[in-house]
């Protein structure tokens, strides 16, 4: 009989750091093969629809970029939190508050007929997300609550608040009682980058945010403090690094970027505030941050993969009649195999004596 056990490694295995995302993707394809067979569909046809069809046209590629933009914005903010061991699970709520704040400014100041209105809307979105993120920050710093629970519960509060507002003071009085706001004016809308597509300025914001966060983490004392706290809280405390300050700043940065993502979503592809503004970008960004190993370049690639799942699942629904929820299923499978791969990074398999 084979008799093996796991032993902790002294240092994480760099080879498995690189290989585990690839193995996670391979494992996802294998599981997907049997999943499509169980659903009565040809795996070849389904995989072609899921992975190839979205990349076969300019419109499909731009749709992937449109869906990847909010995931990238949220994920790079979450990477700051996660590197500081601050487990912000509330990005979905911060995204929603950013959308609400941006929409409120767009509707209240609709008489402004220049692009200062768009700037105000974007800033309002950042402020909205940061305010929502400050709640778990206060609770953690002042009362030592678990930020996983508080930030997660605030997601449901944010969705309830959104539903209340689009049926209340933000509802379009000319909208035949539909639960949605009035369409935003031209000066409160993100301009299209390519005519005939939905590609908007939010994609540029996402790339700029990624570069800024990468530079901040690598070149500033704040970034150094984040890495030290993440590696050893006791060493950081001994060095005089104030962990409360890092908790505050990391959550505000993360919340602000999630809020900006929410603002870009309603000011760009949607064009108004609706009860459903996110297919789960806040949760997909958590997966993207970990699949991308909290590295900016990795996050861009993993976010594009998550976006490909969204666009591909829409095509699966249209062409093969499969449920749209398959996007979430595949994202979960990738995360499952990635966590399994982490076992090989931190532990080695040895034969028992």
Q: Care to describe what's here?
A:
The chain has helices at 14-38, 43-52, 58-83, 91-108, 116-143, 147-166, 202-219, 221-231, 233-238, 243-270, 281-291, 296-320, 326-346, and strands at residues 4-8, 347-351. Strands 1-2 form a two-stranded antiparallel sheet. By secondary structure, it is mainly α. It has 13 helices and two strands. 70% of the residues lie in helices and 3% in strands. It starts with a strand and ends with a strand. α2 crosses α12, α4 (91-108) runs parallel beside α6 and α11 packs parallel to α13.
- Secondary structure: helix percent: 55-70%
Overall body shape: globular
What ranges have pLDDT less than 50 throughout 5 or more consecutive residues? none
Strand content: under 5%
- H/E series, N to C? EHHHHHHHHHHHHHE
Please summarize the sheet with the most strands. Answer: 2 strands, antiparallel
What is the radius of gyration computed over CA atoms, rounded to a whole number of angstroms? 21 Å
Give the number of helices: 13
User: Termini, distance in Å?
Assistant: 13 Å
Number of strand elements: 2
Q: Given the helix and strand composition, which structural class is it?
A: mainly alpha
Mean pLDDT value: 91
- What is the spatial order of strands in the main beta sheet? 1-2
Keyphrases for this structure?
70% helix; two-stranded antiparallel ribbon; 13 helices; 353 residues; mainly alpha
Helix-strand blueprint:
Elements: E1 4-8, H1 14-38, H2 43-52, H3 58-83, H4 91-108, H5 116-143, H6 147-166, H7 202-219, H8 221-231, H9 233-238, H10 243-270, H11 281-291, H12 296-320, H13 326-346, E2 347-351
Antiparallel strand pairs: 1-2
């Amino acid at each position: 009989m084979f008799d093996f056990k796991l032993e902790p490694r002294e240092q994480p295995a760099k080879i498995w750091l690189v290989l585990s995302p690839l193995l996670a993707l391979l494992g996802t394809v294998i599981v997907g093969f049997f999943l499509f067979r169980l659903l009565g569909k040809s795996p070849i046809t389904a995989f072609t629809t899921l992975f190839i069809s979205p990349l076969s046209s300019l419109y499909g590629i731009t749709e992937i970029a449109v869906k990847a933009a909010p995931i990238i914005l949220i994920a790079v903010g979450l990477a700051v939190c996660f590197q500081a061991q601050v487990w912000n699970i509330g990005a979905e709520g911060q995204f929603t508050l950013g959308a609400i704040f941006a929409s409120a400014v767009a509707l209240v100041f609709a008489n402004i007929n220049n692009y200062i209105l768009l700037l105000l809307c974007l800033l309002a979105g950042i402020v909205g997300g940061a305010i929502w993120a400050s709640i778990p920050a206060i609770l953690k710093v002042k009362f030592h609550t678990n930020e996983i629970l508080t930030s997660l519960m605030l997601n449901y509060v944010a969705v309830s608040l959104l539903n209340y507002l689009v049926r209340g003071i933000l509802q379009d009085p000319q909208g035949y009682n539909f639960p949605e706001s009035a369409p935003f004016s031209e000066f409160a809308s993100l301009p299209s980058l390519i005519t005939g597509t939905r590609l908007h300025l939010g994609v540029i914001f996402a790339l700029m945010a990624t570069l800024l966060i990468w530079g901040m983490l690598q070149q500033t004392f704040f970034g150094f403090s984040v890495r030290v706290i993440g590696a050893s809280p006791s060493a950081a405390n001994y060095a005089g690094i104030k962990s409360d300050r890092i908790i505050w700043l990391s959550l505000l940065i993360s919340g602000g970027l999630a809020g900006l993502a929410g603002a870009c979503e309603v000011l760009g592809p949607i064009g108004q505030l609706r009860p459903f503004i996110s297919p789960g970008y806040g949760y997909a960004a958590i997966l993207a941050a970990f699949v991308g190993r909290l590295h900016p370049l990795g996050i861009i690639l993993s976010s594009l993969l998550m976006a490909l799942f969204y666009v591909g699942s829409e095509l699966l629904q249209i062409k093969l009649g499969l449920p749209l929820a398959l996007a979430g299923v595949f994202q979960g499978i990738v995360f499952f195999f990635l966590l399994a791969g982490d076992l090989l990074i931190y532990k080695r398999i040895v034969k028992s004596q």
